[in-house]
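Morning!

As promised:
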Amino acid sequence: MSALTITGLSMRFEPGRPVLDDVALAVADQTMLSVLGPSGCGKTTLLRLIAGFLRPEAGTIAIAGQTVTGDRAWVPSQRRRVGYVAQEGALFPHLDVAANVAFGLPRAQRRARSRVRELLALVELDEDLMDRYPHQLSGGQQQRVALARTLAPRPSLVLLDEPFAALDAHLRVQTGRAVLRALRAAEATAILVTHDQAEALSLTDAVAVMRDGRIAQVGAPANVYAAPGDLGIAGFVGEAIILPAHVADGRAHCALGSLTATGSVAAGPAQVLIRPEHLILDAPDGVPAHVRDVTFYGHDAVVDLDLGPDDVRLSARVVGSPAPAPGSRVSIGVHGPVRTFPAAA
Amino acid sequence: MPRAGRRLRAARGGAGGIALALPAVLLTLIPLGFVLQFTVDVGPAELYRLLDRPRTGELLSNTIRLTASAMAASAVIGVGAAWAVERTSLPGRRTFTVLLAAPLAVPAFVNSYGWSSLTSSVEGFGGALLIVTLSYYPLVYLPVAAALRGLDPALEDSARALGLGPMATFRRVVLPQLRPALLGGSLLVGLHLLAEFGALANLRFPTFTTAIYDQYQSTFNGPQASALASVLVLGCLVLLMADLRLRGPRQLARVGSGAQRTASPVRLGATTLPVLAAVTGLVVLALGVPLGSLTRWLIAGSSTAFPLGDLVSTAGTSLLLAALAAAVTSLLALPVAWLVGRRRSILGTVLERATYIGSALPGIVVALALIAITVRHARPLYQTTTMLVTAYVILYVPRALISQRAALAQAPPLLDDVAASLGAGPLTRLRRVTLPLMAPGVGAGAALVFLAVVTELTSTLLLAPTGTRTLATAFWSQTGDLNYGAAAPYAALMVLLSLPATLLLTGVGRHRAR
Amino acid sequence: MPRLSRTTCLAAATVAAALTVAACGSDDGGSSGTGSPSAQSVTLYNAQHEDLLKEMTDAFTKETGIKVNMRNGDDLEMANQLVQEGDRSPADVFVTENSPAMTLVDNAKLFTPVSPTTVGQVPARYRPADNEWVGFAARQTVFVYNTGKPAAKGLPTSIMDLADPRWKGRFGYSPTGADFQAIVSAVLALKGPAATKAWLTGLKRNAVAYQGNSKVMSAVNKGDIEGGVIYHYSWFQDQAESGADSKNTKLHFFGAGDPGAFTSVSGAGVLKSSKRAEAAQRLVAFLTGKRGQQVLADSTALEYTIASGVPANDALPPLATLKAPVVDPDELNNRQVVTLMQDAGIL
């Protein structure tokens, strides 16, 4: 059964500029879906509609089979059993950690500290923090407390609105993992809204890419990455090299030579998508190129290349050392088949 | 915007909110209706005769000059003092925090008596400006100081990093952030001055309000005086519109993640002495002079006596009335604050603005309006505590409202949403989230109402149950009899009674958990 | 969670406060609101000095057993209040400092005639012809001057002289109160509208305006101005107290029937709407009777006694020697006075 089903959802704040346009989405029970999109694409509005903070112009939302938003149906926020974790954590500044976590519990349970301890353990926080106030916590701790508070009343659905955006890179990964484990342990269904494709791909079971108020593609992270619906999605979920090509007999002919092709174009002019990590710099019969620059990251490196006489520039991501030196010459090949898309208009 | 969307969102708690806000609004409409009725009754010809006189021009010019100058002076002094105390290395900052707010505990008319008994040169425009500025600058100082404390110093750091000097940082980054506090405080000062009587009565500087009192003092002019008050209503509307325009829409609540650092103070260095001298001078002028005069009266003057029983009973009456008025006013103001803070709509704004009008009218107009209504339509309420407290609500609801609004603006609506998602219904959210977050602002507003009621005179004289004596009416009675010595103990008690409320005000925001 | 309980306390306190208001309201409504007739108490709207009337009514209560609920205010505020209240006023008796406030209430037809015995106690010149109210005390217009200033050597012979350009900027007055309005009424009654208008125009040009007679006297004492128009009692009271505001000054009595020698009458009257008319009449009778007048003479108010033949306080020069002009208090009720003052730019 779907934990969440959305159909025909539309919303406008100003005339002629829909924020959400006929959105449909389903999330399976005990899975975690990320909604990925650039800022302003409507993903936060979608979340606020699901939470019941806003009413849409049209469309229905059903949670665990019950219609909570619809033509005649309206269940207010407080009765939806939907948890909400905001970008800033939004802890109640006048309450300490224990009171924040216990906020959504029935009155009788609020004083019992055992449940609070349990929840703090779930989000991997020390129980010594219970008597602290939000301003005494670090950003990562605040987010974990916010999650514990959200999970306390055992919501049927947890909504996370860019919960890691305000954290620095190291904390983001660490906190993200901890949140994921806690959600799994609580057997919760969750929707994570983010503009960070790495976060979306690494943390969740499925990714819904949003663009201009519409859902552009839904699928497993690996699928969306490998087989994006169009070149826009391709560029959004990862770095993309896009080259004009001509397709014939299952092969694409482009600046990198003749490559095995998959995808929507069977024959004729097309564009091909190549991920930087699929480039090989020491291919036996590759295309010669000139190394313009190298950016070294430790675990890998990005090599900027000038290709042949047409002045084609592209970047390769290579693992292992040593990376080629700037100014040296390399021979480029492509690992695996490339994906074709219709030619640019 | 499509109609459906607007209707749907307005439906969420809108009608109930408006209904709850109505009592405060309807109350302030009583004196407004009274003024309008008399303006109509007096008729255009007579109104024209009243207004088309050299005297009216003089009064109008005086009122405008004084209101504008005192608002500007209070803004400059209030911001300067707040900045010196909150953001610099000024020695004795903690003490000054309290001392700079303390003039609020000294009634403006006591301040005025104090100065004019010291020197007769304090009179006319200069004297009036001096007295009202010294009495009312804390209304700007307090909210601005609180806003400075709540301000994220990261903003200032960023500005400094972008190459701005301390003054430029203050002007371009800090000042815009202080705007709501500054505007709110200045608006209170302005409204106050439109209706100010006690402080100006001695200073030979007639304004519209003193002229209205004069009209009442002349045999036949009750209706004409009320009609003149329509000019004050216009003045009030001008202030309110200006405030709305300058305020503009902006998001102020900060829900930062991570701990907010406290600002590192600006090192004054060589300017320490001048700044210290300026702040000390301000305290001496605003606090030292009136308290000094008060002490002198207490010591000199053969009529100085301590009728202990009467002092205790009048102080008790003042305390009870002020506490009651503070509680009721805060309660009635809350829905209005919520309406403008959380449910932005034109109707809500109009309702909120309407509640300011009563405060710009002289106490005598408000009192007579209530007399006219209750004598005819609610006779059992006439000259009861209920009626008196009603008058206080009409006169002082903006004091509560402005503080509550500011508090609500600092409480992010997101927290309300989060609470809803945790299963809290509207009332529960109000009780467990919104009210606790607003508590400092509600307390500050109540304290401001308390301070005003302790010194209120005209409405108390006209509306209190017969035989009720407050510190203010006892002080008035004695000064009317020229017994400054006998009046002094009542004035001193007024100051004492006001001190806790003033201290409460200076503590606001200090221990705020953010 | 302490926060929670604090919120609850706050809510409880607010509700309690609201209930208290309601309770107070109904209590007060019971006693003064419905005005149950009781011979044992009267409600007095007092615009005279509170201390003086406290002494007089205490003596009254002692003699008659009738309690007096005193409500204090200023002449014209209270008069305006009575007019607003109309026939529903809780007041039984109204007492003022000057007669114009009495006239305002009289014009609204809110008084009932004073009993004949009371009228008999008050000389005719201190009450209006229709006897709707009576005078019970009087205050004398005087010119206070600083003994060290030139004015001391060239005092005005008439109050009318003060409009002369040579007095420009040298003297003060308190034009916006009821006190001065009574003096203008006397000028109008004695000299006519044209002369009054010219005089007021001269005053507006010449005089320095203060709020209250005591401020005028204090300014004269300090030498800010050479002289000022005030009532006699301000000076005598200050002399009796510390002299701080009058030690450098003396009084000049205009005399000889000049409007500047005008005696202003403090009035007392019974409201028509009173449900305790008998007790109210007894109070007015007491104020003008021998005992009441004696309390006035003995008090520190230093106003003149005018009724029942009781002589004024020893400190005061006898009223009879001051040659005040005779003006019927009824003549002082002229709407013209206010219009003239407004036209001159004084009000």
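The mean pLDDT of chain A is 88.

Hope this helps with the figure draft.
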